[in-house]
Every structure is written in C-alpha cells, then in structure tokens.
Please model this.
Amino acid sequence: LEEQNALLRRKLEAIAEPHATLPTANAANAANAAAPGWTASTVELLKKGHVICYQLDLIDAWKGTMQRSEAKVAVITKVSRNAEGSKCFVLRCERGG
Model:
C-alpha cells in the first residue's frame, strides 16, 4: 500500500497545476461538489476543509489485475505529517468509502 500511495502521490504531483486552488464547502455540500469545475492541485496546497474528488487503484492479487474505483467526494478533516515528512490526510466521505 505504501508503494501504491507513493505512486499515486507522484501521479497527482505530475498532473497538478502549481498554483491551483480547490473549492471549499462544508460537509453538507460535499455530495453536491462532484460537478464540473474541479481543479487539479498539489498535495502541499490541500488544507483542512477542502473538498476533494478522488479515485483509488484497487489491486486484485488473486487475479493479478487492477481496477479503478468510482469517483468519491470527501472533505479533508485533518492534515498531519508522517515520519518522512509527507502530508497525510483524514477524509470524511458522505456516501461511504
């Protein structure tokens, strides 16, 4: 999972715009936020209260395949740093997840 997380972080940073901003909303509006107008961002710009839309690459070890999850919307509820200094996020999803 750590390798997958690092890979996804590199992919996000590679496609992110350096000065992008994200829309903010409270938790009640998070479900409605998955609309056109999303902006790519770098991990360093994300803050508590930002609403994000994300997908996960799910690995099926038995079949040796990978599938992408459906798009999910979440509110960042906590931001911290791990031992290596990378940002870590706690997300609150309105519709499971």
In short: Confidence is low (pLDDT under 50) at residues 16-35. The helical segments are 2-15, 27-30. The radius of gyration is 14 Å.
